[in-house]
Amino acid sequence: DGRDTLISLMEHLKACAEIATQRTVNWQKFCIKDDSVLYFLLQVSFLVDEGVSPVLLQLLSCALCGSKVLSGSASAGSSGTSAPGGSSSGQPSGQSKSSTKKSKKEDKEKEREGDGSSGSQEDQFCTALVNQLNKFADKETLIQFLRCFLLESNSSSVRWQAHCLTLHIYRNSNKSQQELLLDLMWSIWPELPAY
């Protein structure tokens, strides 16, 4: 029964993450309306099973980092995995490479057209949501998050996800919150050799 509940929870979380990735501004607006969501996700992210954490980190990233960061990391990941396949396919790969270049150029042009207002709106939401999170997140919660994902996690993709999230929290925080985050990072630094 507990296993069925976990499977159901994962299906719901994955659906939420998919929607949040596709409609980032809507997800950000939802998080602004209900200011308990992000802090809850932050707290739960390091308390749940390792398999659930990446989806929670993705939801946090959608709200706090925006879609540009997500698409950048996704394209970096996909280009890394698609390169070997392209080189082994022989001559047709040359044709597919040129068509891929064309589609990438078209995508970039579309992004430029649509990015103007939605990009700046997303950035404003990112800053507002980081400030909202900073109001709720205490030192102990933040240090547990940092320790769990930057030190204890065995998954490099989870560590990079948490690293990106932490960096965006830092960049969108005010001076005193930035200093707090730096102090917390330095406080766990001596633990690094143990990992």
Automatic annotation (TrEMBL):
GO terms, molecular function: ubiquitin-protein transferase activity
GO cellular component, one term: centrosome
GO biological process: ubiquitin-dependent protein catabolic process
Region (Disordered): 76-122
InterPro entries: UBR4-like
Biased composition (Basic and acidic residues): 104-115
Protein name (database record): UBR4
Low complexity compositional bias, start-end: 76-98
